[in-house]
Design goal:
It is a single chain. The chain is mainly alpha-helical and 182 residues long. The chain has nine helices and no strands. About 3% of the residues have low confidence.
Length: 182
């Protein structure tokens, strides 16, 4: 155990970090721990107490270094994900252009680049303009009836266009107070 005092906590921390980055981490852990422990397996009873505590400290440093790299990679992946999320719309435009562009040139449709500006955005309905569901349904049925010249039944009638039976449309018209003006 004479070589063990030459290994410091920072070296053990660095060894843990470096071994995490290797392609086969799990098989390295027992080898590293046995290197730190030296003859601890065969002569654990012969070692003084401070030597065993030093070995424990080096092992803890190794695990801490291993854990710091793991946490650091996870945190950096999260940070990269958040940055990419901010540019989601732009990435979607580029992805669409890559998929739809023929040949070797990238062609982005201008319509994809236009965004809704406040001037072009649809206005929110005012309180005065709001209508009930029954009023909207009434207006829609009247519009369809006018388009069909108030023909309720038949294959080209309002009921067929609305996707309902003639009797159901007649019942709806009676409930909503819709009458043929002719």
């Amino acid at each position: 155990m004479d070589a063990a005092p030459g290994v410091g906590n920072m070296a053990a921390l660095a060894a843990g970090a470096i071994s995490f980055l290797s392609p086969c981490v799990l098989p390295l852990v027992p080898a590293y721990l046995s290197y730190i422990a030296g003859d601890a397996v065969g002569g654990a009873q012969d070692q003084p107490r401070h030597s065993r505590l030093f070995t424990l400290a080096l092992s803890a440093s190794f695990v801490l270094g291993f854990s710091l790299v793991f946490v650091g990679l996870g945190a950096s992946a999260t940070a990269v994900g958040r940055v990419l999320l901010q540019y989601k719309e732009q990435a979607n435009i580029v992805e669409r252009a890559v998929i739809l562009s023929p040949g070797h040139s990238l062609q982005v449709p201008i319509a994809d680049l236009q965004t809704i500006t406040p001037a072009r955005a649809p206005a929110a309905p005012s309180i005065a303009a709001s209508v009930t569901l029954a009023d909207a349904e009434r207006e829609y049925i009247i519009t369809i009836l006018r388009n069909t010249n108030w023909m309720v039944g038949g294959p080209k009638g309002a009921a067929a266009r609305l996707g309902m039976k003639r009797s159901t449309l007649q019942s709806r018209m009676k409930k909503l107070g819709i009458e043929n003006p002719e």
